[in-house]
Every structure is written in structure tokens, then in C-alpha cells.
Amino acid sequence: MVIAFATDDRNGLDGVLAYHFGRCPFFTFVKVEDGKVLNVRVEENPFAENHQVGVVPQWIKENGAEMIVAGGMGPRAQQMFASFGIRPVVGAYGKIGDILNQLLGGKVRIAEVEHEYASNHTYNNERSGSEEIRRLKLEVEQLRKIVADLGSRISELEEKF
Q: I need a surface site. Which of 43, 49, 54, 104 has the fewest CB within 10 A?
């Protein structure tokens, strides 16, 4: 299986997951078989600066991915990936290698594409607004965790020095 990770850098498994898949500067593609990493390659996102709806999911598909991992992703993007047979994973954060281990251990939530979006590419403003609120609340929760982790790490380092 090939897993695509939206990433902020070119550091492979030591890279950091980007929050948004479409505008991230890089994608890290990891080929995994029987729980073992067979190959890691980092590709520049050719659509990071300006992309049209659907071009990133199509490009991810062309790169052989069966799963896409990003910190967050809207319902429309999730539906597009699902229509290509690519499973979206959202809500993760941190280093790619850590997320990969969590994913292989079943500890990362796999997004469920709502049937309403799967059958209808358009959705009304009320639905879109409530989905945006849910996504933003999730982002705030994730950022709090990141800040807490960073605070703990700073404290540990300060104690050593």
C-alpha cells in the first residue's frame, strides 16, 4: 500500500505533517507492505500555490496512493479522494514516522465520507458552515495538543541546561 502524507518539508519519515493537504509544499509517499516500510519518496506539490478543485486528489491518485494523511480536510475533498478509491485520514499531527506507526497500530482516525457528499457534489451553506465550525474546533484542539507537547519539551530541555 502507498500512503501519501501532506508535509511541510522534505525530511521523509522525520518530516512534519502539514495541516492542509492542498496547499502543503510537499507530499511524502510511503510504500508499506506487511507493516514494513519499503520505500519513502518526497515530491514537491505542483499545485501548492494555485490549484483547482480536484487536481491534487487526481495527482495523489496518479502517484499510486491508496490513503492520504493530513491534519485536516474538508468534506468535499474527502469525497473526491473516496471517489478515487483513496482513504482520507484526518486529525493527525507530528512527525510522519510517528504518524505512520500510529496508523499501522490502528491509532489514527480514518475519516468517514458522509453519504450526502458522496452522492451530491454540491452542498448548502448551512451544511458547509457547520462543517467548517467542526473542522475549526478540531484544528483548535490539535493546536492545543501541539502547544502542550512543545511546552513539555521546552521544560525538559530547560531542566537539562
A: 49
Residue 161 belongs to a domain: no
Number of domains in the chain: 1
What is the residue range of 39's domain?
2-123
Residue 102 and residue 92 in contact, taking contact as beta carbons nearer than 8 Å: yes
Do 93 and 69 contact (CB within 8 A), yes or no?
A: no
Q: How far apart are CA 160 and CA 144, in angstroms?
A: 25
- Distance CA(82)–CA(94), nearest Å, equals 24
Question: Quick count: other Cβ atoms within 10 Å of Cβ 159?
Answer: 7
Report the pLDDT value the prediction gives residue 128, as an integer from 0 to 100.
55
pTM summary value: 0.71
What CATH number is attached to the domain comprising 59? 3.30.420.130
Using 50, 70 and 90 to split pLDDT, how confident is the model at 63? very high
DSSP 75-138: HHHHHHHHHTT-EEE-S--SBHHHHHHHHHTT-SPBPPPPHHHHH-S---HHHHHHHHHHHHHH
